[in-house]
Amino acid sequence: MDPALAQAFEDTWPAAEYADAGGFRVGRGLGAGGRVSSARAVGAWTGTDIAAAEAIHRAWGQQPMFRVPDGDAALAEALLAAGYRHETPTAIMAAPISALTDRAIPSLTTFAIWPPLAIQRDLWAAGNINPARQAVMDRVTGPRTAILGRIDDRAAGAGFAALCGDVAMVHAVEVLPQFRRRGLAGWMMRQAAQWAAEQGATRIGLAVSRANTGARATYDRQGFVEVAGYAYYARDL
User: What's the CATH code, domain 94-231?
Assistant: First the structure.
């Protein structure tokens, strides 16, 4: 990733706290998932640093985990040799804001709201966005919003968007199962882009599991392209 996108990726989904172990920065996620509960390389590292990062994880009571960019073969090999397992390959995608603001959103289909409504929190909780993950949104210090999606006259989806510089990142997109594959997620992404454009953003990005082919297809149609990727390397606590 270029520096601006990389900074937005971190700042719009922050850990509760960080600690450095040599060349690694370890996030304390408090149960909010791998993105904020992993270690990542921020400089030159050694095998001793891997052990030190693992010790921080264990002291915090969280699973030892590293987030490794695609192409960092040295770190991946070192972690595999240390007994870590490869998990959850993920793509980072980005698009110009203009690619998602070229058409009007149907009336009463989406809204940008902050703070989130109780129904948005319920929609997140119905998926995999538990209260710990929702707490990540509350930690963001820059411009942010929650996206509400409606279909058949009812609230059916929720998402989160935040800004860092001129880059907006979208996280935590959830649509109730019975309303999927009807285009709502796409309109929610357009609402996020419209909000971001009003804040001065020129690009919009997101992370998506490579296994989530349905979401990837939606993002491909909207003009997103893969710009980077990563995977997690984890071992048991």
Answer: 3.40.630.30
